[in-house]
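so im writing up the methods section and need the Major facilitator superfamily MFS_1 record in one place, dumping it here so i stop losing it
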Amino acid sequence: MSAARSWPMLLAVFCSAEAASMAGFALVPSLLPRLTQQWSLSATQGGWLSGIFFLGYIVAVPVLVSLTDHLDARRVYLACAALSGLAMAGFASFADSFAAALCWWWLAGLALAGTYMPGLKALTDRLPVAAQSRSTAFYTATFGVGAGLSYLWIECVKDLVQWPLLFAIAAACAALAVLLVWCAVPPGKAPEPASARVGDWRSDWQSVLRDRRILAFCGGYFGHNWELFGFRAWLVAYLTWTQTTAPDLWTTMPGLIAALATFLAVPASILGNEGAHRWGRSRWLQGVMPFSCLLGLAVALSGGQSSRLLVPLLLVYAASMNLDSAALTAGLLIGTSTGMRGTALALYSSIGFAGAFVGPVAFGMALDAFGRGSHAGWAAGFVTLACGVAFGRWAIGRIGTLPSESSSP
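--- predicted struct ---
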């Protein structure tokens, strides 16, 4: 079967594997109220426990993703999906304190560095050029599907079993992702390196770091992830606090609301990429990022409002913060030569997920500073999210006007 005909099946395989490998993604955010109480954590410590996942990602991604410029990305993906299963199993068996939990959750984030972007690289390396932009949008949107399913199944099961069993289930799902890619995706040839000498990574990194367009996308992704993952890390805890202070049917199952908010990332991300095609990538990004910032401030000012008003506002905000996601990633990929994509993605992921680490920690610090038991504390937390996406908008403003793109499927 030709590549042009088989690419939808290949896309389905990678998206399914991505969703399976992310079964444990929402475990710490969903269990944060329980773990905070069990281990007597401050809000700042809670932010660190959520953010350490992305710190592990940052440490590994420059090596693992740039490695895909020199060998088949499928090999990196398989090894790190297996590592993800090991990290979940380790958390289930040995995380009996804050310090131990930090170590195992850090390892889980390190494993994500070898599955998310290397999975995208393995996919796009096997696709015809005409299918790469929209396939990238679907793949990156599947991150939202996987995260949403993670919130959903955890919400349905967490009151029925002890929390270590939840991590064991996630480990089994990671093993399923390994099996799926191993069986359904044939090995490929190592890509031709862009540098003059095979293995000369220094030349690759120098070229990428001199590219103003790549750096602007990296800054935009930093702001996007600051907002997005700060929001996801604290949403269940915020809804749990809201239910405690003002009980309402709308916030009875906070994990369900978090799942719905995360699922909204899928259509928002895909539509965002289509909007970038239609109106121009720079123009689109410079419009939707301030919109998300304003909605974050609106949530901050909505403290004390009825849950019937608050929950819809949170869902609209959750959708808005994903209108830039696929547009950013696709914009980086389609303007970067094939031989340099791994290194560009490594830098993009490193800087972007530094924002994913900063977001939860900044939110937690704001809570501690203004009072985690008060509306002022939670309002301050949401203001930090608005600051994150505002920085992303500033970074994208440094990019100038991008060349027009073909919207062919």
